[in-house]
Amino acid sequence: MKLNELTLKESLDALSKKEIKLEEVYADLDLAYAQKNKQLNIYLSKNEDALTQAKKLTDKPLRGLPIAVKDNFCTRDLPTTASAKVLDGFRPQYESTVTRRIKENGGVIYGKTNMDAWAHGSSTETSDYGPTLNPRNPEHLPGGSSGGSAAAVAADLAIVSVGSETAGSIRQPAAWCGTVGFKPSYGRASRFGVAAMASSTDSPGPLAKTVEDACILLNAFAGPDEKDATSNQEKAPDFTSFIGQSIKGMKIGVIYQDVKEIAKTNQKLLQELEILKELGASVEIVQAMDPHHAIGVYTVVQRAEVSSNLARYDGIRYGQDRSNFGDEGKRRIMLGTFSLTKGHADQYYNLAQKVRTLYLENYRELFKKYDVLVSPTSPSYAKKVGASFDSAMFGELEDMLLEASSVAGLPGINVPFYRDDESNLYLGASFIAPMWQEGSIIKVADAFEKNTKWNSWRNR
Question: What is the pLDDT of residues 121-153, one digit of tens each?
Answer without folding.
Answer: 999 999 999 999 999 999 999 999 999 999 999
